[in-house]
Amino acid sequence: MTPDITEEQAPFSTVTEWSGRTSFVTANGEVELVNAPRLGAVLNQVVDERPDVLVLDITAVTFLSSAGLAVLVRAHRNSSAVGALFRVVANNPATLRPIQLMGLDQEFEVFADGEGALVGAAGL
Predict the structure, then answer these.
(1) Which of 29, 73, 104, 108 could make an S-S bridge to 12, C-beta 3.0–4.6 Å?
(2) Which among 30, 88, 36, 104 has a CA at the least distance from the CA of 63?
(3) Nearest one of 39, 54, 53 to 95, comparing CA atoms
(4) In the predicted structure, residue 1 carries a pLDDT above the cut 80
């Protein structure tokens, strides 16, 4: 008999919007071990479209685990590989603090709001 083990997913969703060659991905909920791959898949899909700028807004993310941080690092590397700027919008302690503690704010641009992240973005 196989034990009944179910992984309960924390609430999570994304919305992707385009303006010209700029993609704006908004994540909502928890980005942890179970949901991080979902965010990674969305970001990979956007990078495959070769935007000029990829903005990831995580202001509505309530928890950002090490798995979520790894997704940000991969998205930054993948964006750079196709010549896209990668920008993150983070302004709450649940997201900004882990980014700062890991020094990722030195690797990619982090903004307090979406308007700031879009300044100078192509097509806007």
Answers:
(1) 29
(2) 30
(3) 39
(4) no
